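Predict structure. Chain length: 238.
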Amino acid sequence: MPVTKGPGLRYDPFMHGRAAAIGSMLILSAACPVAAPAQDQPLRVRTTEALAPCVRAAADAYTRHGRTVLVDVGTLSEARHGDAMVGGSTEVTRAIEGGHAVEGSDLDVAHIPWVLAVRAEGESRVDSLDDLLQGREEIWVFGGSVGYEARRALQGLPAERLHLTTDLDQLAQAEVAVLPLSLAAGTPGPVLEIPPILARAVVAADSGAREAAGAFVRFLGSADGREAFSICGNEGAR
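Prediction complete.
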């Protein structure tokens, strides 16, 4: 139908072209959905074997707040494309110094004690660090960088009595084992007089969601986060 020109109606070729352009944009928008906002993407958290049960518990609690957290286990320095890291103090320091984590974003989360695990069906009767040092049993100790204090406490033992491993099956089968409370299945034994593991959290350097990663790190240091971390015997970071 032809456009009628009259006193109150004027054909404007500029406005006609602008309307056509807007119409094209609307059609393109409908054809190409907008990408999901960043908060819909899960946070990726890297942790070590010793702390994995604690971090998974905290991640489950955080997910109930509305943000999904995916946890993978491995060496912090080998983590790629993650958002946050949780590990022992030494491991986190190395990650920061190596450029894998953001300096100044780290936070102390928990102290995890070392406990004694003795097989119920075994013949060993040990209840303390002194018993371990004075006895004759072979002792299996959780190794890795977090095991430094445990190794130091037992360094006076003959080499044939002391075995280091990160194999959880081997620790479970051992008659006498020294391990972090976080890895003690069932009812843990007595806490040993060994300096506890200081668990720390930090934002990963290559995170594409540093603000969200920082929020998760702060959650781990909060009352709710520490309660979730209590599976590890969290005494609260001082």
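Summary: Residues 38-109+197-232 form a domain with the D-Maltodextrin-Binding Protein; domain 2 fold (CATH 3.40.190.10).
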